[in-house]
């Protein structure tokens, strides 16, 4: 074999290897998500990988990254190469859309305004409910300490704030009365958590507070991590509907060539298998059949939509959570 032929052979081998490497890289996906959804996506990823292998005949890898929803949105905006985002508030996705990271019409890309599941806010209290906490009004009592996520850093905290505000309006109260209620409730907050998992750790590991306001799905997570019998779930008289929006990160998939895989990943969240997995993690499925099947887990609770009192989460963000907004005016730590 001549030197020229050897060179061609080596070059062809290297080119084939590079092509194979690129193909392998194209079949990996990063889902950047909020921290309370960690266990759900761990199970979902396994199901999707098996589904994709069965239907496409291709092996893929799915990685996940979890933290506070808003912190994750900022990380993706700053360059974290997520293929998809699966957050707990639409404002975090819209933030990326406004910066050209996801499609402007992201909410029309998938059913239910790109929200395959929902949740709601409830209370976790210590076993036996020693403070006899039953409804929102109890959270302003001087003997009750409340653990909640900072609404400026996490969707969990924003929904808790909006649910508390809306609970006053649902009973016929005015916005002024709702603002006073918020002021009193946050006076009982000894420390604002950074995200949902930080709030749970503060409540259970640091043993701070009498009640934790969090997503319904956190009940299952607490029981799995800390064991049953540590907390009781208290469903207040009314709460808020929390959408879990999803989107393809166009900036990343355009570079990696993973657009088809990213779409398949988010599409499958609407499948019966995925909806069943969501239900097992106490995340409310969109499927009425699956929801009915798990009626024992998803207790009936009157819920109001964000739009009823706040227009939209985008409007709520501007009025309540941006710097200088209502939260900054009403939250008075140490007073």
From TrEMBL:
Where, subcellularly, is it found? Answer: Periplasm
State the InterPro entries in the record: Thiosulph/SO4-bd
Alphabetized UniProt keyword annotations: Periplasm, Signal, Transport
Question: Where is it predominantly found?
Answer: periplasm
Q: Which residues form the signal peptide?
A: 1-24
Q: Which family does it belong to?
A: Belongs to the prokaryotic sulfate-binding protein family.
The identity of this protein, by name, is: Sulfate ABC transporter substrate-binding protein
The record lists the organism as: Diaphorobacter limosus
């Amino acid at each position: 074999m001549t030197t020229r032929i050897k060179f061609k052979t080596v070059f062809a081998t290297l080119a084939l290897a590079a092509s194979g490497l690129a193909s392998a890289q194209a079949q990996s996906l990063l889902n950047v998500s909020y921290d309370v959804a960690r266990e759900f996506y761990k199970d979902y990823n396994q199901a999707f990988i098996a589904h994709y292998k069965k239907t496409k005949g291709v092996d893929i890898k799915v990685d996940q990254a979890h933290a506070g929803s808003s912190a994750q949105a900022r990380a993706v905006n700053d360059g974290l190469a997520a293929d998809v985002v699966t957050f707990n508030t639409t404002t975090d996705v819209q933030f990326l859309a406004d910066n050209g990271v996801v499609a402007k019409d992201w909410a029309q890309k998938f059913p239910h305004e790109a929200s395959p599941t929902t949740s709601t806010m409830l209370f976790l209290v210590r076993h036996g409910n020693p403070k006899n906490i039953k409804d929102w009004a109890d959270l302003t009592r001087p003997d009750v300490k409340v653990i909640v996520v900072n609404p400026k850093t996490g969707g969990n905290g924003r929904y808790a704030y909006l649910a508390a505000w809306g609970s006053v309006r649902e009973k016929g109260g005015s916005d002024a009365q709702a603002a006073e209620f918020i002021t009193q409730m946050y006076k009982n907050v000894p420390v604002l958590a950074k995200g949902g998992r930080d709030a749970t750790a503060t409540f259970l590991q640091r043993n701070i507070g009498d009640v934790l306001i969090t997503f319904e799905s956190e009940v299952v997570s607490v029981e799995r991590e800390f064991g049953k019998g540590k907390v009781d779930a208290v469903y207040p008289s009314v709460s808020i509907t929390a959408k879990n929006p999803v989107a393809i990160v166009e900036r990343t998939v355009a570079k990696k060539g993973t657009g088809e895989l990213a779409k398949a990943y988010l599409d499958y969240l609407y499948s019966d298998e995925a909806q069943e997995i969501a239900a097992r993690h106490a995340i409310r499925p969109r499927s009425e059949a699956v929801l009915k099947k798990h009626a024992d887990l998803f207790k009936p609770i009157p819920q109001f939509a964000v739009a009823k009192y706040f227009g939209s989460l985008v409007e709520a963000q501007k009025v309540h959570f941006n710097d200088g907004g209502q939260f900054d005016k009403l939250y008075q730590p140490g007073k």
